[in-house]
Amino acid sequence: MMTYESKVTIHMVSSLDGFIAKKDNSVSWLESSDSFDKGIVLTEEDITAFLKTIQCYVMGSKTYEHALRLGWPYGDVPVIVLTTRDLKSEIKNVQFYSGDLISLVNHRLKPTYTNIWLVGGSKLTKNCIRLNLVDDILISIMPIILGDGILFFDYIGKEEKLHLKDVKAYKDGMVELWYEIKKE
Amino acid sequence: MMTYESKVTIHMVSSLDGFIAKKDNSVSWLESSDSFDKGIVLTEEDITAFLKTIQCYVMGSKTYEHALRLGWPYGDVPVIVLTTRDLKSEIKNVQFYSGDLISLVNHRLKPTYTNIWLVGGSKLTKNCIRLNLVDDILISIMPIILGDGILFFDYIGKEEKLHLKDVKAYKDGMVELWYEIKKE
Predict the structure, then answer these.
(1) Is the whole-model pTM more than 0.90?
(2) Helical H runs in chain A?
(3) Is residue B1 part of a domain?
(4) Fewer Cβ atoms within 10 Å of its own Cβ: the N or the C terminal residue of chain B?
């Protein structure tokens, strides 16, 4: 099998208790009012430079519709939306896909892009972990307990050893944990 | 109401996916084989000095029995075990308690001790959060996804804003997040 210098990274923003969405889908909790003195602040330039490295986003259709409502944050970067529904897109570079996840990631995306980001929802990211399609997991933990909602990991039913790659704490109390899934 | 310079801290060791115990109760996952270059290492003296500041532990009866089996790690520090069972202790300074949590914490422990640690299980810690008896939460996240077991937070049913107090990453890939629960 050919290997590519290509990485699939899951990125999710989560509460401390592991929820990525509230039941009512409200998003105000994503804005922290906390203040962590030792935390870092990114400049617009830092963020732009970082986002430029991402070559392709993969997401479920609810995450896609949610992103549309909030104001599309992915610019012209290619986006694959997993869905069996008959959706049309007004956004450039959005493609819908209803086939097999393994062949999408391993045969279509990995040979084309080196930095692929999987940004939810939780069903899609869990399936990708179960199918060994994920290299890295980046979790941004907001300083809040939500107490209810949609769990990111839930009961994934599979043990995975991780390698901690980086930890960053931000001025607003958000903590970013970057892990690599260890291959056996 | 009188206030005391007293703090109740929950400390739990968790997997990245939020589990504090495996279904089979095995504990080998608590020993990390990961290596994080930028991580810190504590000396025996650091740990001893830190543990000396803890004046009282509170735990459920399963956590107590688990600690007994693994080799009692609490020395002669006072330990309160919540249980309705008729347990006897061979360990000095262990007391069993079956009454009300609020009166235990607010009327008995807080006036006596300034640094009280709540070390599980998850039912007890959740109840204490729900009853507003907790000041701080310290979570040590091991570099592993367990995929199943007992969730620490679970669906606690209550939203709590947090203040990030400290973040420490260790050489073995463990990350310690220290939060204060914001009082409204």
Answers:
(1) yes
(2) 44-52, 61-70, 101-102, 122-130
(3) no
(4) N
Structure tokens belonging to residue B155: 């669906």
Tokens representing B127 are 């109840």
- Is B137–A16 a contact, with Cβ atoms under 8 angstroms apart? yes
ipTM of this predicted structure: 0.94
Partners of residue B128 in chain A, C-beta under 8 Å: none
Q: Does a structural domain hold residue B73?
A: yes
CATH number at residue A73: 3.40.430.10
How would residue B85 be classed by pLDDT, with cut points 50, 70 and 90?
very high
The secondary structure of residue A182, as a DSSP letter, is P
Residue contact A175–B163, C-beta within 8 A: no
Nearest CB among B153, B160, B164 relative to A169 is that of B164
Q: Do A160 and B144 touch (CB under 8 A)?
A: yes
Q: Do A144 and B159 touch (CB under 8 A)?
A: yes
Confidence of residue A141 (pLDDT cuts 50, 70, 90): very high
Query: Does B23 lie at the interface with A, CB-CB under 8 angstroms?
Result: no
Tell me how far apart the alpha carbons of residues B64 and B80 are, in angstroms, rounded to a whole number.
Answer: 9
Among A167, A171, A176, the strongest candidate for a mutation testing the B interface, having the largest count of B CBs within 10 A, is A167
Please, are residues B32 and B143 in contact by the beta-carbon 8 Å criterion? yes
CA atoms within 13 A on the CB side of A179: 30
Which of chain A's residues have a Cβ under 8 Å away from the Cβ of B152? 17
Distance in angstroms (rounded) separating the CA atoms of residues A89 and A164? 37
Closest chain A residue to B174, measured at CA: A164
User: For strand B79-82 and strand B136-142, is the pairing parallel, antiparallel, or unpaired?
Assistant: unpaired
State the residue range of the domain holding B79.
7-181
Edge-to-edge strand ranges of the sheet holding A144-145: A144-145, B160-169, B175-181, B136-142, B7-15, B115-118, B56-60, B79-82, B94-97
